[in-house]
Amino acid sequence: MNTSQLAREPIKQRIARRIKRLAGPWGVFFEGFVKHPVMVGSIIPSSRFTVTKMLAPVRWDECRLFVEYGPGVGTFCRPVLERMRRDGRLIVIDTNPLFIDYLRATIADSRFTPVLGSAADVEDIVRAHGFEHADYVLSGLPFSTLPDGVGPAIAAATHRVLRPGGAFLVYQFTARAREFMARHFARIDQGFEALNILPCCLFWGWKDAD
């Protein structure tokens, strides 16, 4: 942005832009929450304790494709890429262009693919990037506040896109997500992380082999 553009920019926008720059990823996450609270569901990113516990059951040596819904500012993206094998791929899907643009600008990894779109379209997105199935799908989307029909559609599509032996990893502030998962996943492990704002429920829904 040049000097003349800055001069024409409203004072409120200038202040907001400076605050966001100073706040870094937390500022971007907060802005995303303010603009789309129903889809983001939290005012701050997950804690490192939640990240570690949520990813603990993943067998990284067997993971070729990891998918994440609602990546936000990349709280899980970087730990996933650190653990992932060299020929693996991480596809993240978000309906918020603010987050997708931020991730494209801040994560330089050839294994990383941010997609602006809906988690309900995960099957088409996975196929469009050369895969038939995902090994693991991670979601922090707030199932309890999603528009009617969206939660069930995402749960169903996720079960279809996972390979046998794969898992749907879900972290939520309430246990309601388990209701959506239980319609498709017969085996669901459950955990809890108190060291998070807010404390959250953790679920691992396993797609058993036929």
CATH superfamily: Vaccinia Virus protein VP39
DSSP strand content: 15-25%
Strand order of the largest sheet: 3-2-1-4-5-7-6
Class derived from helix and strand content: alpha/beta
Mean pLDDT over the full residue set? 84
**Number of helical segments with 4 or more residues:** 10
Strand tally? 7
Which spans of ≥5 residues are poorly predicted at pLDDT below 50? 1-6, 37-41
CATH class category name: Alpha Beta
CATH fold label: Rossmann fold
Q: Using only CA atoms, what is the Rg?
A: 18 Å
Q: Could you say which overall geometry the principal axes of the C-alpha atoms support? A: globular
Report, as a whole number of angstroms, the end-to-end distance: 56 Å
Overview of this structure, please?
It is a single chain. With 210 residues, the protein is α/β, with parallel strands linked by helices. The model is unreliable at 1-6 and 37-41 (pLDDT under 50). The termini are far apart. It has a seven-stranded mixed β-sheet with strand order 3-2-1-4-5-7-6, with helices on both faces. It has helices at residues 3-8, 11-23, 25-35, 37-40, 48-55, 77-83, 97-106, 122-128, 150-161, 177-182; strands spanning 65-69, 89-94, 112-116, 134-139, 162-172, 187-193, 200-206.
What would you say about this model in short?
The protein is α/β, with parallel strands linked by helices.
